[in-house]
Amino acid sequence: MASHPPDPRLVATVADDALRLEGELTVWTLGQLPPEVEKAQRLDLSGLSRIDTAAAWYLTGRKREGVQLDGLTEAQARLLETVQQAWPQPETEPARPSGWHQLLERTGRRVAAFMVYMREIAEYLGRFLAALARGIRHPGDFRLTSLVWHCQETGLRAVPIVALMSFLIGVVLAFQGAVQLRQLGAEIFVIDLIAISILRELGILLTAIIVAGRTASALTASIGSMKMNEEIDAMRTLGLNPDMVLILPRVLALVITLPILGLISNISGLIGGALMSWIELGISPSTFRYRLLAETSVDHVIVGISKAPIFALIIGVIGCHAGMRVGKDAESLGAETSRAVVNAIFAVIVADALFSIFFAEVGL
Amino acid sequence: MSENIIEVRGLRTQFGRHVVHDGLDLNLRRGEILGVVGGSGTGKSVLLRTIVGLNQPRAGTVRVFGQDVGALAGPAREALERRWGVMFQGGALFSSLTVRENVEVPLNAVPDLAPEVRQGLAELKVSMAGLPWNANDKYPSDLSGGMKKRAGLARALALDPEILFLDEPTAGLDPIGADAFDRLIVELRDALNLSVFLVTHDLDTLHACCDRIAVLAEKKVLVSGTMAEMLQVDHPWVHEYFHGPRARAAMTTGRAKE
Fold this sequence. Notes:
- Chain A contains 11 helices and 4 strands.
- Chain A is α/β, with parallel strands linked by helices.
- In chain A, helix 5 packs antiparallel against helix 6 (190-228), helix 6 runs parallel beside helix 10 and helix 6 packs antiparallel against helix 11 (330-362).
- Chain A is elongated, with a radius of gyration of 35 Å.
- Chain B is an alpha/beta fold.
- Chain B has a domain at 93-160.
- In chain B, 40% of the residues lie in helices and 25% in strands.
- Chain B is built from 10 helices and 10 strands.
- In chain B, the strands form 2 sheets. In chain B, strands 6-7-8-3-9-10 form a 6-stranded mixed beta sheet. In chain B, strands 2-1-4-5 form a 4-stranded antiparallel beta sheet, with helices on one face.
- Chain A binds chain B through residues 2-4, 26-28, 30-32, 52-54, 57-58, 61, 75, 78-79, 82-83, 86-91, 327-332, and chain B through 3, 65-67, 79, 95-96, 107, 110-114, 117, 120-121, 123-128, 133-134, 140-141, 157, 159-160, 187, 191-193.
């Protein structure tokens, strides 16, 4: 049997009370069995030239139902015996609760998982602060090269996209504000609109969102792939503290660079707004500058930039935590990376809302 | 012994300027378990991948069931691929599917097979590969290394292949698990009339289940023959391999078992 005929053949004929099968009974012909086979109480199999485990599985199943099998060769009977021995033994599974019970259980699990998540985030924040304190007390343990490198990666490399985005936001604000304020004859207030919204909220918030997307995913991916590779376990056995080596430089780099990025974002947003005001409303750059300095309080800038280190901590801690949660398989790396980005952006926006309430209460 | 089911002639494989095989000849006979051994980097796994068509050889022919693997395409190639099963080193299970669904993947190619038949067959193969019933619904990430290999074996056996390719089946298993796997391979060969192409480093496996051994060295099959013949070979690497302290230990346990 060097090669099979192109179409394996199976013929079933009824003789007396028995059903006679001829040809090949394999996984390929199992579907061709005629419906009479189900009723037959005796199967004559002497005409079968070849059977495989699929056929043996089927025949063993029939035999268990009490059907008599005739005419098997010795080798075929042995195969049936092998299958009989390997017959899957189902285990009874515990009954699953249904309806309300299941809904409640799922909700409870989600809530518990959220609490655990919050606790772990707090733990990682604590680990970062402890590492920072240790870095201050023992400057020798501090990895300056690593910090500089991460500042370059998360800060310098993000400047073009942050600047461009803020510039465009400034342009959009000026344009939309001009359309609305012109109806009231209050074009000049477009400067206040741009200055307050960019300096206080949008500049830093959008920067944080971009950095969350860029850096949180990068943190998770870099730490996660080290985790997958057991590099972090290797570090521990070599007496290196992952908090000092991995978490401290990464999060500290974010805390240092995010305010700078926020400042760049503010400036380029104002430039975009000023440019559009000039083109659209004829407000000259010197008027823009004069009104900006005279009417806009510096408090707005302080409010805006003071949020940056907190956003940086949120992004860094969430990213590092997700990286440490990566398991042994590549699938968890992907899942954790996307979860880190979503959580970081969400947390940044929630924190921004809390800041708004806080500053409103304080009166800044 | 009977006909050659795989015939490799004058095989040359190279990656860039790095020649892995040059003028390699190899036979696999029907019904035998052939162990392929060789030092690290001698291209054992590459040879397996070339035979099943995952690597394109530079020169030479690979004939399986008398057909040239490189020249086949389309339906003829698919028909040939259904007649062999490959178990990769880590099991290579599809991570988004459960074990049962993994084993059902090759069965999906069979026309008019009822879903419950497919499921029953998959469960039978899982059981034949020595996995417990509750492994069926687990995902690969929940399985240990040995269980992944067994699940990979179950998938390789799904369509009752005539040739089974095993890449390092016992690497990374504990001695008890490796021993059980060796016995499983021999049992399956006897029950299903398989021919097995087995790449291994494991001397115990060679002793326990291989009918013939092919040694890869110097870019070709240096020698092939039974274990007894291997012990007579006067090549320094082969001598070192089969007479080293590990080999002696494997030999004594192998004898004790018999």
